[in-house]
Amino acid sequence: xxxxxxxxxxxxxxxxxxxxxxxxxxxxxxxxxxxxxxxxxxxxxxxxxxxxxxxxxxxxxxxxxxxxxxxxxxxxxxxxxxxxxxxxxxxxxxxxxxxxxxxxxxxxxxxxxxxxxxxxxxxxxxxxxxxxxxxxxxxxxxxxxxxxxxxxxxxxxxxxxxxxxxxxxxxxxxxxxxxxxxxxxxxxxxxxxxxxxxxxxxxxxxxxxxxxxxxxxxxxxx
Length: 222
Fold this sequence. Notes:
This protein is mostly helical.
């Protein structure tokens, strides 16, 4: 939730300047390997939807297209460089050779549906799409199965973000009301203490006057 709130604030800053291009760029960058989780960006977009800064269909379409374009980057890198890319220093930071072997085995066993599954697994998403490229999968087939997964995932995370935004707003209203009640209660308690202090002070003054008056009277005849 904290990451989502941070993402929402960051997205809002860029959205105020670049509009829908902001979440689009974040999601394409995530597909290219930047440390920007897709799910967090989508939830942040859901927060923007809750605030009324974006409309449902445009933000879903923007995130969907950006997700497919971002996923296409590792796919085409795999098609262009093949498994030789794993030996390159820049690629080894993202594509671990051991993981690539396991992904290739899974791809050989499950074929097309391995791509669909990778869409829901952040840790193996990019290596999985890269593996699809090295395996020679056609790009239309890759888009079909990746697109099916994104069609489920994208609106789900966006509407979850909107739901979180509504809950946070309700929580903020509750906290605000609670603060008002506490403020009124504190003010009432202070007022009661002040009034009690004044009453006690008045009672002491009356007692002192009575005591002084009694002390100044002449003694009675026996």
